From TrEMBL:
Protein name as catalogued: DUF402 domain-containing protein
InterPro entries (alphabetical): DUF402, FomD-like_sf, Ntdp-like
Location of the DUF402 domain: 53-167
Keywords: Hydrolase
Top-rank taxon: Bacteria
Signal sequence segment: none
Pfam families cross-referenced by the UniProt entry: DUF402
Amino acid sequence: MGYFAPGDVVLRREVLHGRPWSVMPARVVRDGPELLAVFIVPGTVFGYPDHHYRHPWLAKGNTHWRGHGKLQLHRPGDAYSVELFWAGDDRRFQGWYLNLQDPFRRTPHGFDTLDHALDYWLDADGRWEERDRDEFEEQVAEGKYDAAQADAIRRTGKEVAAMLDAGATWWDPAWAAWTPDPDWPVPVLPADWRDHPLP
């Protein structure tokens, strides 16, 4: 399967228990053997297929992306992505959000993953904190993950925390100054977004 070109629209799907759980169109920023970077454009509408486990964003009424958008950096094999956030009229960089998730799997239309709820925030000034541990443990109790999956996620969390403690982050800090192409329109879900089969 080949790489996507900058500006391409791809579908980022979350797959839970063998079924699509959420679908989000994204713009490709960079794609290659070492990094897949995509941007969630402000105003992007999310898709929620019918599923037996209700997506927490859907439960909260989150239908589209707000704010300045977010840049997502994915390394092959990593069980987390690195997401960048900006705020204010001057688009001030806020920090790096390490989103624990399944390692991404390429599809003909984009890539599949699954958010693990447990996250880590690295502020622009270098301070970091763990986030959403309670939400993750609640999802474990509800059966979103089996015991082996839950243990693997906890191990990834410890690895991420150790990396942050050591100041050994791998990504280029120059991404903090990245800006999206102003000519990029908001991508939309294709009419057949519910029908793409799992690879």
